[in-house]
Amino acid sequence: MVSKDERSIWGPLGRPPDSVLKGSQFIQRQWKELTKDAKHVTTMVWNIYTERKAKEIEERYRSIVRSAEAAKSADRLRDD
Q1: How many CB atoms lie within 10 A of CB 64?
Q2: SS3 letters across 19-67
């Protein structure tokens, strides 16, 4: 759960994982778009569409973090 202080600083998704912060510009742009969508959902009236959109955001969140971590580990392997 994201605290109120963290939400006010970082937005509705809270602080991005380090792998996203240190990731490529593409990953950071994806995170920025996801944050915009999440902020929009927080202002919507809760209904089936909102619930569906929230699940989509959650899936995209996981996908972005997985991509960032995969890129990070690929960089690590390449450096070895």
Answers
A1: 23
A2: HHHCCCHHHHHHHHHHHHHHHHHHCCCCCHHHHHHHHHHHHHHHHHHHH
- State phi, psi for 46 to the nearest 5 degrees: -70, 120
In the numeric block, which tokens belong to residue 60? 């995209």
Nearest to 67 by CA among 26, 34, 14: 26
List the pLDDT tens digit at each of the 80 positions of the chain: 677 788 778 888 989 999 999 999 999 999 999 999 999 999 999 999 999 999 999 999 999 999 999 988 877 666 65
State both tokens at 29.
């742009």
CA distances in angstroms from 19 to 16, 37, 70, listed in the order given: 8, 21, 9
* Dist. CA 61–CA 43, nearest whole Å: 19
